[in-house]
Design a protein that fits this description.
By secondary structure, the protein is mainly alpha-helical. It is built from 14 helices and seven strands. Residues 134-324 form the Tyr recombinase domain.
């Protein structure tokens, strides 16, 4: 079988069913197959990011099938294995494993819907991959301090940006959880302020607010005048260059661009992003004697193995040991 590189999604031969793009091999099996395909992404996959990633993976796979003259019923385990081996030459192991998971889950859905008799991806094994340290770039302690202290506090935008970065750092929050917060998600219990984070899968994660973060949030909310607007977004976009906030919530790209600007202005050499502050916060907590199981709970991780990926204490140990190599 001739190996071909999958076409990018924009070049795929597709048919639209409502707002959903359906690959031609699926559409060729009739309306029931097309409807079942659409339902997989709209009804079965609830997370928006997972839905988008799985849709790209499925579209690329069915484009490859069409290039090789494969109809939906003709797809066999050898075809899926060949495709996975091919993309493994260009993509990382985690990406290949994600694409295989998307194909396998989609075929499971089609089998249950009696569109195909069996799942050709169920017997296919993905590449081996194990990680003890995450790939997220993390600023050093000095870089993190420099960036936060470089943010001006005499402007509303500066107060907002400091509060956003502070929330990511002190709560170990994902950026999607931070941007989803409303003003009412910052609330008192007794004399202590708490934050309610809206995590993946509709989960709500509540935790007390660090005193520094409380200072950041109080200053920002007071300057923005949004304390009584409880149902509105906590972190809002800016109206052009006016310096005035809109009623719209910041998005992940908004936060990423803001962090890039602030890092550049502060002279931060490390390539940092939104997730960098989650790693920096977890590492700082563990460096100061915090327990891994508590970090897991604070980060909202289902497994301590996931939390361990954010623990970068070993990197400094390795650097110290390397410096012992002296002629």
């Amino acid at each position: 079988m001739k190996m071909l590189t999958p076409l990018p999604p924009s070049a795929l031969p597709v048919v639209r069913l409502g707002d959903m793009v359906v690959p031609t091999p699926i559409m060729a099996e009739g309306e029931r197959a097309a409807t079942r395909y659409v339902e997989f992404f709209t009804a079965h996959i609830r997370n928006r990011n997972t839905r988008a990633a799985y849709a790209r993976a499925s579209s690329a796979f069915f484009a490859w099938c069409e290039q090789h003259g494969l109809t939906l019923p003709a797809v066999q385990p050898v075809h899926v294995a060949t495709y996975i081996e091919q993309i493994g030459r260009e993509l990382s192991a985690p990406t290949v494993k994600q694409q295989l998971a998307a194909i396998r889950m989609l075929f499971d859905w089609l089998v249950v819907g009696q569109v195909v008799p069996h799942n050709p991806a169920s017997a296919v094994r993905g590449p081996k991959h194990s990680a003890t340290t995450g790939k997220t770039h993390m600023p050093t302690r000095d870089e993190a301090k420099a960036l936060l202290t470089s943010i001006e506090t005499d402007s509303l935008i500066g107060l907002r940006d400091r509060a956003v970065i502070g929330a990511l750092f002190y709560t170990f929050a994902r950026v999607s959880a931070a941007t989803a917060m409303r003003v009412e998600d910052y609330y008192p219990i007794g004399r202590r302020m708490w934050l309610r984070l809206h995590e993946k899968g509709g989960k709500r994660h509540e935790m007390p607010v660090h005193h520094s973060l409380q200072e950041y949030l109080d200053a920002y909310i007071a300057a923005a005048g949004i304390e009584t607007d409880k149902r509105s977004p906590l972190f809002r976009t800016v109206e052009g260059r006016s310096g005035r906030l809109t009623g719209e919530a910041m998005t992940q790209p908004d936060v990423f661009r803001m962090i890039q600007r602030r890092a550049k202005a502060a002279g931060v050499a490390t390539k940092v992003g939104c997730h960098s502050w989650r790693a920096r916060g977890i590492t700082a907590y563990l460096e100061n004697g915090g327990l891994l199981e508590h970090a897991q709970q604070m980060a909202g991780h289902a497994s301590a193995r996931t939390t361990k990926l954010y623990d970068r204490r070993g990197e400094q140990v390795s650097l110290d040991e390397v410096e012992r190599i002296v002629l």
